[in-house]
């Protein structure tokens, strides 16, 4: 392995061992894997008797194995590898006249085979497939280990993400498992759930030497997309007085985070697919290809599967992106996080505004617990900052929360579809009075008996609610 390859920039995370008695073939195979595949975590073995010891010593995950070798022939070595190292994948590289034997090797457990004269494209595609399978297998193993022990190896990486939710913890465990892989990660979830924070965590976990470069691709037309990502050479178009490096190059060996990927135009989707598949791109106006060294992380609040089925998102790109996928739960699916986040944002806002942290009324937790937070954590953060900007001393006023939540409930009512089937067509309708009583009961239950909050939920004043409750109590006692 070359000295410039460090644990952080190894690609793939496990080693690829090439075993062949011909030094010249080992050299040319290494070159193809490096130049065409972008792989740098390579080991060569020219004496088949040393292969098993190398597999035991080095972190080998995939072996490219010649069939015809002195000492231990390839077929024999394959048997020993599958027996002693069942987790290591093997691809057979055979001569033209050995296809039958190569097929037999597949039955013995080899992943695939290629004849030595196979054109480079097919060979690289086969190795890529094997690498992806192997990465997924290793990640599954790591996931299983983590779930069984319920541990995080690097909890400090997640410290900016305030949560005590089990689902979020599983997301963190999953991210730790996929962090060493060079494959893309698709982060999905509603707007404001913290997808960008997750992208930062993925970058930190990966230990990659380069930067994290974030690009919001929503609304970029195809030319701007290509220019932003790939850069241009001087004179590439009118006004291009200077060459400019694109975001892909700025990310170096780090992470390129493409946000709002669900809004990418069809033309730009083709460019992104080519970048991920070939690992190569051309700056505008240049005919010299460059290689991407960064890992790609993408995020979207849209349902990509749905978009793909509707023909608005390329299927091949979708499959390429979702090799590793995490869904960040919405805030209403992890309501236990609301008090924690509120406390965090109030403290943050207090520091920023040079105020002392207020006492939070108990009713506020109940009020927020009953709200659906369409804007998720971003919305809660904005509410906390707004309340703090108006706060003077002592107990935090709930007014700004009430106002914002009422406002949101109204706009939600206006825009939402009146499609929910509340009533079964074969049942008699309840009377208005019965319905009103049911609503009042539900609001009182949700507000844990707090009339001020229940009245907000019902959209009536507190005295009006109080009057209704009194009447209800009188009716039932008479
Ligand atoms: N768990 C969390 N802990 C602390 N802050 C959070 C958390 N989740 C989100 N935030 C904060 O909420 C705001 C929105 O988060 P972020 O931009 O990561 O959301 P997003 O999912 O990427 O949104 P969009 O889809 O609109 O791009 C940011 O200020 C972020 O710091």
Automatic annotation (TrEMBL):
This protein's record includes keyword Cell membrane: no
Annotated ranges, domain Response regulatory: 15-131
Chain positions with 4-aspartylphosphate modification: 66
Entries under SUPFAM superfamilies matching the protein: CheY-like, P-loop containing nucleoside triphosphate hydrolases
Residue stretches making up the Sigma-54 factor interaction domain: 161-389
UniProt key word Iron: no
UniProt keyword annotations, A-Z: ATP-binding, Nucleotide-binding, Phosphoprotein, Transcription, Transcription regulation
Pfam families (UniProt xref): AAA_lid_14 (PF25601), HTH_8 (PF02954), Response_reg (PF00072), Sigma54_activat (PF00158)
Protein name, per record: Sigma-54 dependent transcriptional regulator
UniProt organism field: Marinobacter suaedae
């Amino acid at each position: 392995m070359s000295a410039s390859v460090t644990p952080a920039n190894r690609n793939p995370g496990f080693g690829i061992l090439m075993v062949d008695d011909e030094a010249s073939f080992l050299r040319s195979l290494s070159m193809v894997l490096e130049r065409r595949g972008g792989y740098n975590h390579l080991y060569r073995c020219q004496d088949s008797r040393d292969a098993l010891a190398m597999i035991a010593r080095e972190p080998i995950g995939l072996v490219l194995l010649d069939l015809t070798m002195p000492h231990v022939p390839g077929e024999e070595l394959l048997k020993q590898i599958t027996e002693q190292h069942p987790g290591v994948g093997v691809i057979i590289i055979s001569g033209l006249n050995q296809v039958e034997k190569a097929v037999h090797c597949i039955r013995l457990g080899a992943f695939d085979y290629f004849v030595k004269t196979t054109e480079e494209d097919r060979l690289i595609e086969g190795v890529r497939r094997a690498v992806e399978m192997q990465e997924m297998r290793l990640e599954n193993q790591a996931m299983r280990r983590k779930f069984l022990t319920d541990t995080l190896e690097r909890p400090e990486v997640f410290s900016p993400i305030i949560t005590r939710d089990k689902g979020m913890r599983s997301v963190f465990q999953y991210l730790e498992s996929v962090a060493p892989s060079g494959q893309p990660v698709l982060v999905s979830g509603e707007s404001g759930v913290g997808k960008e924070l997750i992208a930062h965590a993925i970058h930190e976990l990966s230990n990659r030497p380069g930067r994290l470069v974030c690009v919001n691709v929503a609304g970029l037309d195809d030319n701007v997309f290509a220019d932003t990502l790939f850069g241009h050479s001087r004179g590439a178009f009118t006004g291009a007085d200077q060459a400019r490096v694109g975001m892909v190059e700025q990310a170096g060996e780090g992470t390129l985070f493409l946000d709002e990927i669900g809004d990418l135009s069809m033309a730009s989707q083709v460019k992104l697919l080519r970048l991920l598949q070939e690992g190569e791109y051309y700056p505008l106006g240049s005919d010299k290809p460059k290689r991407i060294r960064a890992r790609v992380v993408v995020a979207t609040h849209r349902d990509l599967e749905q978009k793909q089925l509707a023909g608005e998102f390329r299927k091949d790109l979708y499959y390429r992106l979702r090799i590793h996928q995490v869904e960040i739960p919405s805030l209403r699916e992890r309501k236990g996080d609301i008090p924690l986040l509120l406390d965090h944002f109030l403290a943050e806002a207090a520091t920023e505004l040079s105020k002392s942290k207020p006492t939070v009324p108990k009713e506020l937790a109940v009020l927020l617990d009953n709200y659906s937070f369409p804007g998720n954590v971003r919305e809660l953060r904005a509410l906390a900052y707004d309340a703090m900007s108006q706060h003077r001393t002592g107990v935090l006023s709930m007014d700004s929360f009430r106002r914002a939540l009422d406002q949101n409930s109204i706009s939600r009512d206006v825009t939402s579809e009146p499609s929910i089937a509340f009533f079964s067509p074969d049942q008699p309708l309840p009377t208005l009075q019965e319905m009103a009583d049911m609503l009042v009961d539900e609001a009182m239950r949700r507000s844990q008996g707090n009339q001020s909050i229940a009245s907000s939920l019902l959209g009536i004043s507190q005295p009006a609610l109080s009057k209704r409750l009194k009447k209800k109590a009188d009716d039932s006692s008479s």
